[in-house]
Structure formats: structure tokens, C-alpha cells
Amino acid sequence: MAQVYTCPESPRWLMLKSRYKDAFQSLADLRGSDIQAARDLYYIHVLLRQEDLIAEQRNGSAIVRLFSTRRNRNAAIRSFIVMFAQQFCGAGSSPTRALLASWGFGMLNFLFALPAIKAIDSFGRRKLLLWTFPLMTRFLCVTAGGFYITDGTARLAVVAVGIYLYVIAYSPGEGPVPFVYSAEAFPLASRYLGMSWAVFICWFFNSVIGLTLPSVLTAFGPQGTFFWYASWNAVLFVIIYFFLPETRSLTLEELDRVFEVPMWTHANMKLQQLVKVARW
Questions:
Q1: What's the domain range around 31?
Q2: Would you state the pLDDT for residue 80?
Q3: Cα–Cα distance between 109 and 157 in angstroms, integer?
Q4: What residue stretch is flagged as signal peptide (predicted)?
Q5: 3-state secondary structure 202-263
Q6: pTM score
Q7: Which of 131, 244, 254, 270 could be stapled to 240 by a disulfide with Cβ–Cβ 3.0 to 4.6 Å?
Q8: In whole numbers, what is the pLDDT of the chain averaged over residues?
């Protein structure tokens, strides 16, 4: 918390407030070079002017534009999907959190999130999710099945292994990817607002899980609860496969073209690819 005060202010925000001198100093602190800071200051200035011109040609508030244009709306829906998935994949549920907290969730999450630093660009956001969701489904089922074992030592061992493996699968995939995906899905003019909505969705469904979990535990028991979240992982895998496009290494113009495609068109394209693979 104390280190937040040492972080440079956002240069873009400073320039929106016409504080160009402060923006240059912030960029110099971030880049470590006055020449690079001057270059980026000019680039941001040009982008802000272009955004002003675009905004003048459009009607309505920023929130209306976020959901009224197909490009922005598609980016918002996809971002909401991955944020929703981060909570309903099971990591946000109290039984999982309680077990993870007692078994070193923080250290495991840290260690196995490190590969994502490289893999998220070399492997891709979409592929990371498609690889890790089936694994999380299996490991939650293993954890749930462990509760049926009558021997206490064996039950604890199976549940512990299932939880550990679940964290290993979660950390490089659904842990970091939603925030990276949401941050780059929106165009620059709407990014601040779109990202704010995405984070709101994330914490909204976190609270939904917290409020509904006692009822789920009462109805299903601990093993049924883990099976419940395992089924959500399976459903979310299907949704991500059909509706989530890849954003790795795409320019702003390429992202505009990707998110301009209707979601059902994208889903139909993925279905056709699946049919071709099945026939082959």
C-alpha cells in the first residue's frame, strides 16, 4: 500500500488535465530516458487529439457509446465473460479459498503464474484459457471425489492433491488472463471506462458467490459444491471456445476488425473449424 505513493501518475491522465510538464516527468520516470519520454509524449498527444475528433463525430455519452457500437459492445461482452469466469471457475468460492489459504495458495499462485509472463504472449490468451479450463474441471472433480473416501488420511491426501493441481492450472490461465484480455480488448477512447466495467463485473460476481455459497453448501454439501464449480468450468470452456477471439500481438487496427465481427459469426466459424477437425 505504501509503495503506491511511489508510482508515477498516469501520463495519459495528466495530459487529459493539460498537465504536460508533469506527464513528461512521469514518462521520464517510467522510460528512464528523456528522449523516449518526449517521443511517447508526442504519440499520446496525437492519439488524444484523434480521440477528441472521433468523440465530436459521435452522439451520446461515453457509457452509451460503450454499449451502442458493435465493436465496443463485443469487447465489453468478451471482457465480462472472462471476468465472470474468474469468479465462477471456483477460485472465488469460500471452501476453495479456505483450503487454499491453509495450504499456501499465495505461494503456489505466485510460482505458477510466473510462466504466464512469457506464455501469455508466446502461447496466447485464448489458448491459455482453453488449455487450463479442462484441467481445472478435472482437478475440481478429483477434489470433490476425495470427500467420498472414508479413510481420513487418504481423503485429506486426495483433496490436497486436487486443490494443489487446481491452483497450478488456474495460476497461469484464468488468474492473470482476464485482466490482460480486458485491458487490451477496448479501443483507447473507451479503455478506461470498459476496464472499469470489467473489474466491476469481476467483483460483483465475487459478491454473488459469497451471498449464494451458504445455500449451495447446504443443498449440495462440500463434494457437490466442488462438482458444481467443475460443471461451470466445463460450460465456460465451451463459451470461451466459441465466443472469445485471440488478441495476442494484434495492433489497435487489427483489434478493431476482430471485435467488429458479430459474435455469432465468430461462433459459427469456430463450429465449422470443429466440424472439419471431426471429419478429418
A1: 2-56
A2: 96
A3: 20
A4: none
A5: HHHHHHHHHHHHHHHHHHHHHHHHHHHHHHHHHHHHHHHHHHCCCCCCCCHHHHHHHHHCCH
A6: 0.81
A7: 244
A8: 87
